[in-house]
Amino acid sequence: MLLKILGIVVVIWLALAVLGAVFEFLGTALVIGAVVVVGMVTYSAVKAGRSRRSIGR
What we know:
Number of strands: 0
Number of helices: 1
Shape: rod-shaped
Radius of gyration: 25 Å
Low-confidence stretches: none
Helix content: over 70%
Structural class: mainly alpha
Strand content: under 5%
């Protein structure tokens, strides 16, 4: 009986460890994705501003 309880505790611990790793990866991916999106939007805005200025001259 003790081994059964210990086995269940180990399985739950492993499941929580895997979930923690997944959520940590997703958090990191979210930050990297946000930085890339902000960079692309900034680049697009600067590029559009330059092309608009050259057309008006």
